[in-house]
Design a protein that fits this description.
This protein is an alpha+beta fold. The chain has five helices and four strands, in the order H-H-H-E-H-E-E-H-E. The chain folds into two domains: 41 residues, Winged helix-like DNA-binding domain superfamily/Winged helix DNA-binding domain (Arc Repressor Mutant, subunit A); 75 residues, Lrp/AsnC effector binding domain/regulation of amino acid metabolism (RAM) domain (Alpha-Beta Plaits, 2-Layer Sandwich), CATH 3.30.70.920. Strands 2-3-1-4 form a four-stranded antiparallel sheet.
């Protein structure tokens, strides 16, 4: 396992802010030579601390300006029911995130779509037709003052 010392922590913070930063600039910001910085980044990647690099997309610019979190309760607490629910969501483009969670419900979804009318259609025609679903609770995102998802 890679040790997360103060320098590795600074590298990770900089990469979370801007994963496209050049190695030369990253090295300057964290106080290392470019070769030492590159070795550390490669080790963070090799060890799995850095799992990947992604583009952060603007939902509104893509016509998906409506975002919500949906708590989903299943009618059966079995592995088979969970697997079928998860499989059904794989082909649904509105579902941006799907988390199996603890508590009174089984799943928390993040969805994005064009507007309230598109959400109503998704709610009725997609989630409302899944036989595993017993309860849905929607939390509409009004603003995201801090969002570090990548």
């Amino acid at each position: 396992m890679t040790k997360i010392d103060a320098i590795n922590d600074r590298i990770l913070q900089e990469l979370q802010r801007n994963a496209r930063i050049s190695n030369l600039e990253l090295a300057e910001r964290v106080g290392l030579s470019p070769s030492a910085c590159l070795r550390r980044v490669q080790e963070l990647e090799r060890s799995g601390v850095i799992d990947g690099y992604r583009a952060v997309l603007n939902g509104a610019a893509l016509g998906r300006g409506f975002a919500a979190y949906i708590g989903v309760g299943l009618n059966e607490h079995s592995k088979q029911s969970q697997e079928r629910f998860e499989q059904a969501l794989q082909a649904v483009p509105e579902v941006i995130e799907c988390h199996n969670i603890t508590g009174t419900i089984e799943y928390l979804l993040r969805i994005e779509c064009a507007d309230l009318a598109a959400y109503k259609k998704f709610h009725t025609d997609v989630l409302g037709t899944l036989p595993q679903v017993s309860a849905l609770t929607t939390y509409v995102v009004l603003a995201s003052p801090k969002d570090q998802r990548a």
